[in-house]
Design brief:
By secondary structure, the protein is an all-alpha fold. Helices cover about 80% and strands about 0% of the residues. Helix 1 packs antiparallel against helix 3, helix 1 (about 5-30) packs parallel to helix 4 (about 85-105) and helix 4 (about 85-105) packs antiparallel against helix 5 (about 110-130). The protein starts with a helix and ends in a 6-residue tail after the last helix. The relative contact order is 0.16. It comes from Dokdonella fugitiva. This is Putative MAPEG superfamily protein.
Length: about 130
């Protein structure tokens, strides 16, 4: 059985999250060093510098939205709803989050918020689809 388009987008969003996790970890390792990375991290470290801090904050922001996207896609999958809202909602979520990441790490304000909203509305569309009349 072939997975739905929405499940494939969820898998892609999971992969994108993993890429961000690795980027955030490596950015912290570059600033704090490998000895810190291998330590139990019991000592409070100074805040991450500019770019490593952005990478880390972007990842944390992603992790705030990703569980809701998972719920949206699983709800659509379990109810058998695969329509334009779930399709384009999944595309908007993942595409919006990718562009948001690039803009956030680049330090570009305002426009990045537009893409956060694109992702949020995509997630909302996919989440709402199973509840709308057919």
């Amino acid at each position: 059985m072939r997975p739905s388009f929405e499940l494939m987008m969820l898998a892609a969003a999971g992969l994108w999250g993993f890429v961000q996790l690795v980027a955030a970890a490596q950015a912290a390792n570059v600033q704090y060093g490998l000895r810190w990375a291998a330590s139990p991290r019991d000592v409070e470290m100074p805040p991450l510098e500019r770019i490593p801090g952005r990478i880390n904050r972007n990842f944390r922001n992603y992790m705030e939205t990703f569980p809701f996207f998972v719920v949206a896609i699983f709800t659509a999958e379990l109810t058998g709803v695969h329509d334009a809202l779930t399709h384009w909602g999944a595309v908007a979520y993942l595409g919006g989050r990718i562009v948001y990441t690039v803009l956030y790490i680049s330090g570009i304000p305002l426009v990045r918020s537009l893409f956060w909203n694109v992702a949020a509305f995509g997630m909302l569309a996919a989440l709402a689809a199973p509840f709308l009349p057919r």
